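for the recovery benchmark. tokens below, seq after
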């Protein structure tokens, strides 16, 4: 039985970033002209010497950024969106404004960052939720952040990393359509190997832990189950060229196994520039097959449009992307990159030819995004 979180573990929305600026002075050494009281020196026997030029100032030593010595800010993204959802019964269940935010960072224990404490805070209450209601349209105002990820990481040698604590699922080339929602979380440990010259594959990872408490966002509420194991995952990924990457993984969750395979490829720009295929095969008494196919075309450096088709079986479980969930559907996407920091995107999906009810027969998302990390780098606060 799922345990519902009774109280939100809130975290303040506004975070301050302290930046220390050190000023260093430079000295200028002046060379003195020759002087002599030697009586044997001829007087006025040559042209007067020009004044000596100042010696060049020694280079100023680079001043380390104390904040970045200890903290590696990895993501800082804030978004707003309008969401419209109509069920297969023709009922408009959602017409609302929402906002979201996510910040991920690590605190480096040693200067090279081989050992670190990693954390991720974000909005959204639940495994498949990353948004708060704005109180505009459907639903009351919600303004809560959660500590969703908190884990220790150790990389004793290049290409080898160990993680332990509240971590995110690994998907490879699969997306949240056929795998786990992008906002998902789990408890456990993982070893990741990225040594393609020695191990052939570009990435090999093995995870064991607990995937549950799907209505409880905060790590503080879930960590009591960190010693339980109902989830095992093994993934390999290979980049065959700059245009083709393939991954395959096997998941064991509560006694049910699922095999996933996916690839992404860049193709000659005839109709699309990029294609992605992903599929899964679930075993057991509720075994089924599902897939998703997607193509995208860039229209210049700022615009991109795409479309695809997905078929997710009725018993998938509801922990994949809430935009897709289950059923057969077509979907379309569009993205406009306004600046390095700002972008807007559109997502539309329509369920087709399903023999069962779906909660999102028609869905529209219009999203406006702000990449705060890019702004901090642009103004020189981060490198």
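predicted aa per position
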């Amino acid at each position: 039985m799922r345990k519902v979180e009774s109280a939100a573990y809130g975290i303040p929305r506004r975070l301050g970033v302290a930046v220390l600026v050190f000023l260093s002075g430079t000295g200028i050494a002046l060379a003195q002209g020759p002087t002599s009281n030697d009586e044997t020196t001829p007087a006025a026997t040559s042209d007067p010497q020009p004044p000596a030029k100042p010696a060049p100032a020694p280079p100023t030593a680079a001043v380390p950024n104390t904040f970045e010595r200890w903290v590696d800010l990895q993501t800082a993204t804030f978004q707003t969106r309008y969401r419209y959802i109509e069920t297969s019964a023709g009922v408009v269940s959602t017409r609302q404004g929402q906002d979201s935010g996510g910040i991920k960072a690590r605190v480096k224990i040693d200067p090279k960052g081989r050992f670190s404490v990693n954390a991720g805070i974000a909005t959204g209450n639940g495994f498949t939720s990353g948004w708060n209601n704005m109180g505009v349209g459907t639903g009351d105002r919600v303004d809560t952040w959660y500590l969703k990820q908190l884990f220790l990481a150790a990389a004793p040698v290049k290409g080898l990393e160990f993680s332990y604590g509240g971590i995110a699922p690994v998907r490879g080339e699969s997306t949240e359509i056929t795998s786990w929602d992008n906002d998902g979380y789990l408890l456990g440990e993982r070893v990741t190997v990225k040594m393609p010259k020695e191990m052939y594959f570009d990435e090999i990872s093995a995870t064991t832990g607990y995937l549950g408490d799907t209505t409880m966002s905060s790590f503080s509420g879930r960590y009591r189950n960190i010693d339980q194991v109902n989830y095992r995952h093994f993934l390999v990924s290979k980049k065959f060229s700059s245009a083709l990457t393939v991954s395959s993984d096997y998941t064991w969750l509560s006694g049910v196994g699922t095999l996933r395979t996916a690839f992404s490829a860049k193709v000659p720009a005839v109709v699309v520039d990029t294609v992605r295929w992903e599929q899964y095969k679930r075993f057991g008494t509720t075994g089924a097959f599902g897939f998703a196919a997607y193509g995208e075309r860039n229209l210049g450096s700022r615009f991109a449009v795409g479309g695809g088709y997905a078929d997710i079986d009725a018993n998938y479980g509801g922990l994949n992307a809430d935009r897709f969930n289950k059923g057969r559907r077509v979907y379309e996407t569009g993205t406009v990159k306004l600046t390095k920091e700002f972008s807007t995107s559109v997502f539309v999906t329509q369920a087709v030819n399903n023999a069962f009810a779906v909660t999102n027969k028609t869905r529209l998302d219009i999203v406006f995004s702000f990449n705060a990390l890019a702004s901090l780098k642009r103004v020189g606060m981060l490198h």
